[in-house]
Amino acid sequence: MRWSAGILYSVTAILTGSAAFSMMMQTVNGGPWSWWGPVMLGAAILLMVVGIRAFATELAVGWLVAIAAATPPAICSAFGTWPLRCWVFALAVGISAFVLFRVDAAIRHGDTAAFLASSLLAASWISVSVNTVRAYLSPNVANASLAVPAVMLFFWVLIVATLLRSGSTVFRRPSVR
Questions:
Q1: Taking the model in full, what pTM does it have?
Q2: Contact between residue 68 and residue 94 where contact means Cβ atoms under 8 Å apart
Q3: Which ranges constitute the DSSP H helices of 56-171?
């Protein structure tokens, strides 16, 4: 069962993170001053390390935090430069991963880290989804293709499945023995 959860978390993280990164590169989505793109990407990175943890249960939390913190500079390396905001983002993601795993260790009730990461991912996708649907339903829509809402719906299916999978573990009743 852990492998199926790890696959779901990893696929959701990679696809939503790629979409968030793509949106960050387009100026129509708020430009460099918008916080939604980095929050979406950061949430996807956190879910990615939770997915890695599902596969490598013996991997120390310090390594998972290092992977989370190293991902933003790795992404920036594709552009050949590491601006200060990349390092600040890496630090924020690393600290968030550390806090996420500490809360998970303190609660010790299932996939708390996965539930928190997927909740953050869902919250960060709400604004983009509402704006996309609003633009699609606008009478002035230039391109009424169903591709964009279909892709958005696919991402939401993944995010909701991740929330349900992790939430079912977090909120289950302890078995009586």
A1: 0.84
A2: yes
A3: 61-77, 84-107, 112-137, 147-170
Domain extent listing, the chain: 2-170
Angle, CA 120 vertex, CA 114 and CA 125 arms, to 5°: 125
pLDDT in tens, 75-125: 888 887 778 888 999 999 999 999 999 998 888 777 888 899 999 999 988
Tokens (6 digits) for 130: 């509402």
**From CA 138, how far away is CA 132, in angstroms rounded?**
10
Tokens of 124: 């960060």
**Amino acid sitting at position 174:** P
Tell me the CA distances in angstroms from 71 to 67, 127, 133, one per residue in order.
6, 24, 31
First CA to last CA across the chain, in angstroms? Answer: 22
Please give the pLDDT value at position 144. 66
